[in-house]
Amino acid sequence: MKTIFALFSLCCASLCPAQSMFRGDANHSGAYAGSAPRQFHRIKWKFPTGDRIISSPVIQNKTLYFGGDDGNIYAVDADNGHQIWKRETGGPVASTPAVLDGIVYATSYDGKLYALNAETGAAKWKFSTGGERRFEAKGIHGFKPKDQTIADPFDVFLSSPVVAQSTVYFGSGDGNLYAVNAISGELRWKFKTGDVVHSSPAFANGTLFFGSWDSYFYAVDAATGKEKWRFHGGEDALIHNQVGFQSSPAVVDGVVYVGCRDSNLYALDAATGREKWRVFNDLSWVITSPAVVQGKVYFATSDSSLYHVVDAATGKPILRQQSKAFMFSSPTVVGDVVLIGVLNGTLEARDLKTGELLWDYQTEKSKKNAGWVLTSDRKLNEPMIFASNWREGPIVGSDKEFHIGSIFSSPLVANSVVYFGSTDGFLYAAE
């Protein structure tokens, strides 16, 4: 297994063949070999689950693996969309699976990490954490009553596992990063942070990199679980809006790139944690996990709905394009195309060099626009959705917003076919 992983680590960020874990490989570069369609032709197939899909699909041996909020882990034939197997868990599976050596690993809201046979879905073992929960705070985002502790409705992702050195690493709502034996499921070590860990760890050169809702970003020795360094992001003691690392990092050429809810995209020295640069996004969160390829960083924002490309060495802007709605999905770079999901139920394909919109696909549920969540130009109808900040109002509003076919899932491309999930409950294959 160490030999296999060494090949992963040597993968060039611009030509990464592995697509068996979140963001493609253990470094989470978000860049893949092959080509993506520059024109949309058709939906090849779509696979129904029954509840929203936050998880991003991965692929191995022509089989797609992903999780559903219906509580199942799925294996689906990439060619025809036929179900091969599904395995029930005790909660929504809002994480992206990792597949290695015939085993599928995924986390669930039931607080467990599952290890399943990749061919049959049969359980090999499961590991229990201290339990899952969302980030919460009093009066979060200005919701009222201001002294009521409220779970953050925008904390939608679970930590996705990364597999390296015969170990599965993942974060948990109990505030820990875990290291679990990949074969036996036995605990090797755990590292305690100050709050929920839903950032997906990246692995490079024997070190794990991840963020926590305690507003610290960490580098931890993968063998021992000992802290190497930590970096402090922004704080927001008033309404807890500009706080926490929800994004997952990319590690390329000795630099860690990661977004933060304090509205910054950071570039940190992987060896020391020293800040190299930051890009401030005018109070708009950076939830997307950045893609890094050919000396450029690709990312997007929430409220301002902007697609950005910046220089990887300096952070200086290269281009910026306006989208129509929040982007939590992470950009996927394949050849000369960048793909990203949008919360208005649209998948966007952009030209790598110019940022020009090549094509987009809107889910049928988004077109139906139940409850008039979208305006006529497909922007989120925020004043209507969040008409009240009191009690359940914001929770009901965010639920309406998320259930129109929003795309949180990060696109996967294999053999020029684009695979992605939607909150309409379908996994799509587009070409």
What descriptive keywords fit this protein?
431 residues, mainly beta, 5-stranded mixed β-sheet, 4-stranded antiparallel β-sheet, 4 helices, 35 strands, 39% strand, disordered N terminus
Give a structural overview.
The protein is mainly beta. Helix content is 6%, strand content 39%. It is built from 4 helices and 35 strands. A 5-stranded mixed sheet has the order 1-29-30-31-32. A 4-stranded antiparallel sheet has the order 2-35-34-33, with no helix packed on it. The longest helix has 10 residues. The protein is globular. The two termini are 34 Å apart. The N terminus is likely disordered.
Strand fraction band? 35-45%
- Strands of the widest sheet, in order across it, are 1-29-30-31-32
Measure the end-to-end span: 34 Å
Q: How confident is the prediction overall: mean pLDDT?
A: 94
Task: Kindly provide the radius of gyration, computed on alpha-carbon positions and rounded to a whole number of angstroms.
Answer: 20 Å
Coarse morphology: globular
Structural class: mainly beta
Count of DSSP strands = 35
Question: What proportion of the residues is helical, as a percent range?
Answer: under 10%
**Residue ranges: pLDDT <50 for 5 or more in a row?**
1-17
Individual helix count: 4
